Amino acid sequence: MTVSYTAEVATCQRCGCFWKLLARWRASIYKIIWFDLLIFLFCFYAMAFLYRMTLNENDRRFFEDLVRYCRNHGALIPLSFVLGFYVAIIVERWWNQYISVPWPDPLAVYVSTLIRGLDEHGRLMRRTIMRYVCLSLTMVLTMISPGVKRRFPTYDYLVDAGLLNKNEATIIAAMDEKFPSHFKYWMPIMWASSIMTRARKEGRIWDDFSLKSMIDELNKFRYGCNMLIHYDTISVPLVYTQVVTLAVYTYFLAAIFGHQYIYTKEDSYSNRINYYFPVFSTLEFFFFMGWLKVAETLICPFGDDDDDFDLNWAIDRNLQVSYLIVDEMHNDHPTLVRDQYWDEVFPPELPYPDESQRHAPPEPSTAKLDLSKITSTYIPKVPTTTTTDEIDFTNFDGEDDTYDHELTIKFASRRFNIHRSSSSISFANFSQLVSSQSRVDEGEEEEILGPTRSTSKDDFDRLKEERERERHARQLQHAALALDLIKEELQSPTDPPTSSNDPKPSSSRPPIRTSTSNQTQTDKSYVNTSKTQNH
């Protein structure tokens, strides 16, 4: 399981907080490279002993030439660039693999909320769906994690753990024999989707949108399982891993010879400290080899290293939490009570155990910017004379009696007259009663006194009522016009036919609708008017 040290570095004090981590052994750099470092030092001292104690004069000259050659050309290997870029790729891949591990919690919330029913069958549906989801993830983890594979080597172990039933194991085994080249982790997900569809047909899921939401969340879970399979089958290109490995090991192979102490007058090769112990060579090996070991550890985070993910814990946790959400907590919540800030709407400040821990609220970065010089130079002064642009027109009537200027909104009213006897609809404008309220320097203010005005309503409510009445009147007008048109269609067969000799059929009746100023007439109202005129 990944070693966590967040609590120890939560607060940085004095010389830093990373010093306390250097004494750790588990998942440390010392545990990773101690064996490689011993091999490096053994080879280094073996070459030193060979040069100082065994070789003759001619062989020593050859060894000195080899030392000079390795020291001069060993730096040509671009170790920092190659290794740094490779480790950056591995660390990013390591984190992406972790966030690709799907968790069943969101789907469990959907299942518990949308699949209704407190009977045994509804409970069985919810629990079976989540068991299939956890089973699918477990089957994926057995393919990519050695630790999980050792825990569940066959389907029988999954049956013993309660993730799989015997009849389900028989179906999967038969499918493996029939199609052995494909992974079967998706079969439990298909079973879960079939149960969701069945719940919709039985009415346990209220609408199709709820079913779609559950299927979408199930597909997200399947996508996470599929990504884990992809990370397992598609690795970092082998050629890049080989290049990095060869670069590191050939560099330190050259350092075994190139950093040796030799008997010469050149100071760079005859340092007395290097005669006893290669200090900086050891540090260089410590850093670069440790960098390579980090990449080797993180390239597959599903193994048995100290910093690998604890997937066996995740399997147990997923099944327990899933059953808890869809069964124990299904349609259950605490009693609804008023919170302690009910009367205050929201708390001004939440309490602290120690008020000294309270800090000032954050400020924007430009809050304390000095603008005095800028404002005095570039921003013009606002004139003090009062104009109509400065008047606030947002005050309502009676809100401020001392204000000298008041906005009066005047709406034109329209009255509709409906004559039932003649099916005639007419409308006319009528003037508003105007009364003088007060006199100011510019003139006289007017106030609208409508027939339906109420002192408890503002102008917007009155406008809304006027618009509503006009809308109803228009609907009645349209209905009357439609009624007259229907009557005309019904009376048209009884009209006398026109002579075929006439080039144009003449009609003694004027147009159906005659529009005058402020008057709308129908066919029937026109006939009544004509009869009155004839008499």
Question: How would you describe this protein?
Answer:
With 535 residues, this protein is mainly alpha-helical. Helix content is 53%, strand content 6%. The chain has 17 helices and six strands. It has helices spanning 29-54, 57-73, 79-99, 105-114, 120-144, 146-151, 155-161, 166-178, 187-201, 208-233, 238-258, 272-276, 279-298, 311-328, 372-378, 459-491, 523-534, and strands at residues 414-419, 424-429, 433-439, 444-449, 514-516, 519-521. The strands form three sheets. The chain has a two-stranded antiparallel sheet. Strands 3-4 form a two-stranded antiparallel sheet. A hairpin with a 4-residue loop joins strand 1 (414-419) and strand 2 (424-429). Helix 4 (105-114) runs parallel beside helix 14 (311-328) and helix 5 (120-144) packs antiparallel against helix 9 (187-201). The longest helix has 33 residues, at 459-491. Mean pLDDT is 79; it is low at 396-456 and 494-524.
